[in-house]
Amino acid sequence: MNILVQGAGALGAYFGGRMLEAGLNVSFFVREKRAAQLTKEGLKIISPEGNFARKEVAVYTSPEQVKNIDLVILTVKGYHLDQVIPQVQTIVQQTGAFVLPLLNGVEHLERLQQVIGKEKVIGGFASIIATLNEQGHVEHTSANSAMKFGALDNEQADICEQLEEINSHVKTNLLREENILKHMWKKYIFITSFSGITSAMQLPAGFIASSEASYVVAKKVIFEMNTLAAKEGIALTEYEVESMANRLKGFKKGATSSMHQDMRKGLPIEVEHLHGGALRLATKHDVMVPVIETLYGILKPYENGKPDCL
């Protein structure tokens, strides 16, 4: 299987690197600046799951360059989706590849399906806490990592089976899920709460547990998101919802969300993709989500990076 990872931030570089490490044919589609960095520095992973380095990696910067690809793993941030959709469309038209987007949230599925066809878009998401250092190397700080995926159309069965077979060869978890939409929603619910509260506090996750008031806010986001999930036909048990809420208290003191990491660096954040997406669903179903709306209002000024006045 020939795999193209579109986007080589911490997420794409990590999972793409793990597949390279396992001997798979993996290339990267990136912007010019990142291509130059990868050419100079190579791809390097620093991780509890094992370090890895590869000096030379295959890099594309134009969709017309891409040939003979079976699977595109889309790992860009939500705020880059508009920019990359035409590129994805060209690549799929040229190669017939399936697309596995690892974006947070759920809105991107329909948008991609409208452009390249429902049969081409596989469901999936990733679980990892990682960032890029100044050299563009991946610093993976959580104890483990996982990429979960599953078919949303019968035509995706073969490609999902091939991806599932890779799991035993890589130093990460590539896990196939039968009800991938439910798992995507569980991730969406949790990250909307976790990223929202850490970014609004501008403090790491340990302060969720140490401040009851902050924990209550984060927990209410989970309950509001669960209401939206139910309206979208995703049924979660009371135990599943409470487990997500309890998980908020289980992080190490210094751990934090990727959104909070981006905010501290003055980078754009995915507030529109996560909290904004939740508000659009709330409008669709005529549901009130006051805590999410409040977090959205607090974080919106940071959407495009550090505000000029700071």
Rg over CA atoms, rounded to whole Å, is 19 Å
**Average of the residue pLDDT scores:** 95
Domains, number:
2
What class, by secondary structure content?
Answer: alpha/beta
Could you tell me the CATH topology label of the largest domain.
Answer: Rossmann fold
What are the low-pLDDT stretches, counting only 5+ consecutive residues below 50?
none
State the end-to-end distance: 47 Å
How many β strands by DSSP? 12
Helix content: 40-55%
Estimate what percentage of residues fall within beta strands.
Answer: 15-25%
Which CATH-level-2 architecture of the largest domain? 3-Layer(aba) Sandwich
Sequence of strands across the biggest β-sheet: 5-2-1-6-7
Q: List SSEs in N-to-C order.
A: EHEHEEEEHEHEEEEHEHHHHHHH
